[in-house]
Structures are given as structure tokens and as C-alpha cells.
Amino acid sequence: MLQWDLIGDAELGVLADPPRLRSVRRIAGGPVPDAAFDRIAMLVHKLVDAPMVAVCLVDEASQFLAGQVGAPEPLASARQMPLTHSFSRHVVVAGEMLVVPDVREDPRMRDNPVVSEIGAIAYAGAPITDPDGLIVGTLCAIDHEPRVWTPSEVALIGELAEVCSSEVCLRIARSAEEDARRAAESAHHQLELLAELTESLVGTMDVEEAMRRLGDIVTATLADWCVVAVADDPGGPARVFAAHCDPERSADMARLAELAAGSRPDLRAMLTAVRGRGRPVRTTDGATDLGDRISDAELAEITTRAGFGGSLIVPVVSSVRRRTLGAILLVNRPERPAFTAAEEWTAAEVGRRAGLAVENSRLYREQRHVAEVLQRSLLTELPDIPGVELHARYLPAQDGAAVGGDWYDAFAQPDGSVMVAVGDVSGHDIEAAATMGQLRNLVRGDAYGRDEEPGVLLTALDQTLHGLRVSASATAVLARVRKSWSGYQVGFANAGHPPPLLLLPDGNVQVWWVPPEPLLGLPPREPRTTARRFVPAGSTLVLYTDGLVEDREQLLDDGIARLSAVLRENAARPGDELCARLLEVAPRRSDDIALLLVRLT
Question: How many angstroms separate the CA atoms of 97 and 165, rounded?
Fold first, then answer.
């Protein structure tokens, strides 16, 4: 063992602290995979895109992987490593989150055996604590190459480490109950609920869908029925959702949510009950307590039919903005016992995770807005060109990261020809939109004032991207339209993009298939080719991105066939109307769409 790897007395004193070790040993499952912690590791893996994620518990001699994704064998099966191989022990000793872009540059970690054994290069670990605030381990993400962890990635790891801490606290609290068997069984079900809830809420960015899922999960195990009220801003309008374990009460719950949203005094009373305390408010008999305070007669009648026994109100808390965003009312029917302390703890966690879902939705909407504004600001304002009528549309995706790198462009050359292009940069985020703007400008800069054919221009663009080390991968069609004695000549080059379509004056549609060529941004090899077509006046050239014709459930050929049919059926419509008709046949928009119509009069 190298000298630096020896664990000093001071460090060992922290790691061997008896109260801390008792907590670790209560929750460490040894080599047995833990489903709840595995799920949390998988969530971090998906959201942060880290090759390896682990929930680590550290005692005085070993590190246990209570949850993991991406660990190589035999570690993935053994779930245990010597303390000398642990990065997380430094988090335990330091008492705070540790974020390291390259461990080889950190004196504490650079010679650790896991650097060479599993290729651990970048590390971000957040502490997991027990009920007394003692650090028992970490939730950590590891990359195999140097990485600057973004603030949002660090915040997400910290948030889910708090979720792990809550799981730890729940297990320790339940392990202390007198009836060990019942406590263990209860803990298992509650942890499954929280793990299922977390996974379900992270799977959507829509608040309404998130609250519907929350209601379905909570009423399946924790309460007979519930009401969720959330508002993005204090004093602003609250959105209300209600669910019941009995499907026959669904109409009542829909009406209850509608009435509760309109009955501001009753809703305000529920929110005020938890906002001031910042913790759950439990009653033993809702019919004589909270139920009697409902002023709306129809609302009171519905709650009576639903069964108003023991109730519990928990805050929906934003851990980002440190304020209460709403409340969840959990209710059992009178024949059921009151909520226990363990159920209250679980309900509080439900409220906190609901707050995380609301915050994620808010941040997603803000990012979507910023990305869409950026995307639209980078798109071309179509020029007025004699003899050429241009129409274009851009639509962001309906889900996912909202916008991406789709673009269109058109500009006149000094020699009288017209350049038109449509392209799609890989990715669906602000970075893709910014890369799109850079690539579009390079296309313009390389092409303007030059009389070469599109294949030559795209070959030059490949060399520019490679020489300037522009990290971009994109499909594109670039075309030059020239006036000819019989109409128009169109030369075009296709870099891995869906084929252009041509609507002829007689209503027939041509699909301009050409042999496939590589995407833009790949290392340049052979020169690109230019295909040529002679086009009669009165034709319409249609360029588009794959979001218009393709998704997971629709093949490209089928989408092109449908698009061609719409072109034939609407050949006589004005350009703007034809654009609208073409967009109507797009599949469910999991991708953004750029569309450019070039009418050659």
C-alpha cells in the first residue's frame, strides 16, 4: 500500500465513530442489491449522463455499494471494496460535498487504485446523513474522463442525496420500533412507495401529470384519498388535483378538485395550516376537526361521501427556493386507524418530492422558453427574391428538451442564383440550438459569393468544421436554384438528410432520393457529390427535417409517402396554407420541425 493511502488516526477516528457505525450497520445490506437505492442510482445515471453512479455506505474498513449502476464486475456483484479504494471516505471526513473534475490532479485521490482499476477520473459525491446528521456515505457520480460538473448536475446529485438521506432516516426510524417484523415490512412498503414515486415524478416535466401520478401512488398504499394543491408563486392561483382509492369516486374527486380550486378560503386554510409550521399537521378525526372547517356545502358533501376520518396535511416544499409551494391533504375513512408517526414521516417525504417535481417543471419551462427564444432568434428572415416565393415554418418538439438544432435558410447570390438549405444538428437542448446558429452562419459564409455547386460547398464546409475544431454533427440539404431557358436548374447535395420533394405543376410529386453521404462534421474523406434536376416553372421544392416524417412508430418511407400525398391533394393552395397542411400530418412531435417551401414561378 502506498504511503498516501494509509488512513491516519484522525481520519480513522471519524470513520470509526460508534454512533455513525451503528447507523451504517443498520442500513448496509452487504453484497445484496438494494432496489430503492439502485433506482436512485439509475435516476442520477439518466439525468446526469454519468457512466457510473453509486450509493456508497462507508464504515471503518470497507465501502458498500448499496445501490449502483455502471460498476464493472466483480465490483457490481460484490458490492464491496476496501476503504483504501474509496473516494467517498473523503466526503465523510470532510463533512461536505466533494466535486472533482479530474482526481488525478487531487493529492488525496490521484493515486487511488480505482483510477486505474475502473477508470475513475471525474468524481462528484454528496453526503448521505442519518437522523443525527452524521454522514454515513455518499451518492456519487463517476466519469471515465475529465469533466467539469455543471451547477445543475451538482444540485441534482445533492437533491437526490437528500432523498437517500431520507431513505436512511426512514430505515433507522423503523428499525427501532418494537415489533421488528411489522416495522421491517412497513419500511419495505413505504420505501417502495417513495422509490416508485420518485421514479414516476422524475419521468414527467408536466405538473398536472406529476400530481396525477402522485395521487394514484399515494392512494394505492398510504391514504384512502388525497387532495394536492400547488402554486408556483405565493398568492398566485393554485392548481388542485384529487384522487381516491375507489375508482367509482373518480367523478367526485374531479368535482372536488374543481370546487377546491374555486373555494379560496377553504384552500387557503389548508395551505396556511402547513405554511406556518413547515411540517405535517396530523389530526385523528377529520370529521370533527378539518372537515368541520370546510365552508362550501357541496365540497363538504363530497368529502363526507369519500369518508373523512383521520387526516394529515403535509407541505409541498421547494428545496431550491426554500419555501412552501402547496400542500397535500391525506385522508383515511373513519374505520381506519389514525396515521402513524412512520406514515407521517413518509407523507412528509411525499411532499418534499412533490416540491422537487414542481421545481423541475418550472426549471424545464424556463429552459424551454430560453431555448425556443434562442432558436427562433437564430432562424433566417426569408428574403424577397423575384421569381422565387419562400415560405418556412419552425415548430419545437412537444416533449423532451423542447428545441434542438433544426434550421432553414435562403439567400440570393450575386450571380442571381438562390441558395436554400435545411439542416438538423444532433441534440435537443440549448447547446444544439447554439451550434445550429454557428453552423448556419458557416454555411452562409462558405457559400456566399461563390459559384461552386453545393457538393463542393459542403466539402469545403466539412474541412472548415474539421480545421476549426467545431464540435458539430448534422444532417443537411444544400441546394442552388438557377434560372434556365426552360425553367430552373436545381443542383443539390445531401448530407445524410431526408430527400427533398418536388411538387410539379401537374400535381405529381417527385422524391429526390440520392445515394447516402455522411453527416456534416465527420472527418472529411471523399468529395461530396452534386445531383442536378431540371424543374419547370410553377413547381414547388419542399425541404424539411425528419421530425415532419419520422418518429419511433413511423418509418421514414411511410412518412414521406404521407407527405407526398398531402402535397398532391393541396397543390393549388397558397404557400402558407400548404405549410399548415403539411405540418398537420407530422407524427406526435418528439422532435422539432423545420420546413421550407420554395415556389418557382
Answer: 14
